[in-house]
Amino acid sequence: MLLLKGQDKGKAGDKGAVEGTATWALADRIGLAICWALGLLFCAIAVAIVVYLLVQGIKFLRPEMLWTPAAAGFSEGETGGFSDALFGTLIVAVMGIALALPAGVAIAVWLVEYGRPAGLARITEMTIEAIAGIPSIVLALFGTVIFSSTALGFLSRSSEGVVFGRSFFAASAMLSLVALPLIVASTREGLNSIPRHVREASYAVGKTKAATTRRILLPTCRPQVTTGAMLGLGRIIGDTAIIVVLLGATQNFAPVEGVGFPLNYLRGAGTTLTNFVYEASPTGNLNQPQKAYAAAFVLLLMVLALNAAVDVVHRRARKVGTWSH
Amino acid sequence: MEPLISPPPIRRLRLEDPEPATEVIAPAHSNGNGHAPQQSGFTAAKRSIKAPQFSIRRMEIDEVSVHYGAKEAVKRVSLPVRQGEVLSLIGPSGCGKTTLLRSLNRLTELTSTATLTGRIHLDDVDITEIEPTLLRRRVTMVFQQPNPFPMSVFDNIAYVLREQGSRRARKKSLEPKVHSALDRAGLFEEVKDNLDHPALKLSGGQQQRLCIARALAAEPEVLLLDEPCSALDPKSTQVIEDLIVKLRDDVAVVIVTHNLQQAYRIADHVAFMYLGDLVEYNSATALFGSPREQRTQEYVSGAFG
Hints:
The structure holds two protein chains of two kinds. Chain A is mainly α. Chain A is built from 13 helices and two strands; from the N terminus they run αααααββαααααααα. Chains A and B meet through helix 7 and helix 8 of A and helix 3 and helix 7 of B.
């Protein structure tokens, strides 16, 4: 039936000439059917997840959960919402991307536009790939070593020379490493897609490499940079391991006493939505699945919003046009 | 299973008939004035341009060789470049004409494997002694593919006028210069109401003229054109050819072209290169009408390409 669909389209001629499959070998037709089936299967899985969470979310999400912090209590009514977790997610997202975006773009520009000496460029490339491959729990463990050192005591809670090593600073720094490879890869792809003659056109009117990069190359690959940033944000928002190990995974903000706002919060421990979902799920300490669904729904909305943003940026870029290759 | 569909019928073209071939080589527009010499090939075509009013020697290419690694792309070429004239470099693919053109504003230096020996002078100053960005403002270049920057028509020109990466020099103060650059490229009338539109949405011919306007905005002394019409339709090509001829009094023009008719139509002097060697350099009428070298004769008559 699926095979017939393609032929009907061809006859209708609505999308130009579509090749019919009637003359194909049997193996090719089976292959095409498998492609269709798998494509539809994954669509179905994605739709199922979204619809299920949508239904559960609407059922269990109460608006006041968004501005009520979690509290200890004996019944669902007493335990409050997850405002601290929501703000925690926003804080690590902003701080993580603020570190990863400039660094990632800078690394990509250096790799594509400069990349000398070649040996150093290759080492940089391998390093980025290695970071991309490291599980975030390993990054988290490494982070505890770094941020518990006395020299970095100003980034977290410390008393009598003992550094706690868990704070929004520590978690964001390590989370930025999770986002970094995605931003580097995406920006590199954008820079590589600009034809060489476009760069040369800028050099050929006496512009330096720096001016060309700033005014021509980076604005041109803004869609890819944005895509990388959004993918990176998605990873930061979705990460749990680093939050558990490096943010303390407390139920509420735990600001450091005797430090001014906002440093008291940023140096203190906290939590995020992913951690809240874990804790509220039946395996976690809180075991209140309804709130887990509500928080997961909010998390899903954030990720869907990021995807929509990527779409908007790409659509806007298409209006500007591109070169014929 | 369905039977195999029969292959489409083969349409055999009669290759032994010489007629279509001559038609292709013949000039696109044979003028009705009647006093065109009845020669074979395109030298019968109308040469619409007048002889140059004057010519001043601006650049001097002296025994220049360019190597890409071990491969010698340009072999000891010497040529003058004059203002008031159009110089055309012709030759089959890979003969080094683009490399020679790129060496005139030191763009070859961007290729890490390229090494240049010999001397190139701009107004008697060795170009290796001129800072590259300054040289490239005096010797600007237009490329084969139209490559406006992905910004508005206005900003494409304004980018050239501003200092390096700066945004300084406000839009208002740049307006006269932007307009005059567009005007010199014959584009102003077409785009004057759409200066804020994205440049990449212009037609191919307009894009290429914008690139010429961009190259002219730097107020260069020499304009290099690397097959500027190869991606364009005949109508746009003609517009750009007329433009190039008009520009030759203000800037020295060097154009690389694959299109022999084009070289004949617009060039005052032609240099024929083959496998890195400069085979023949002469005035356009002489080189196409009565070539001295056997190789040139074969190339301009279409024996190889």
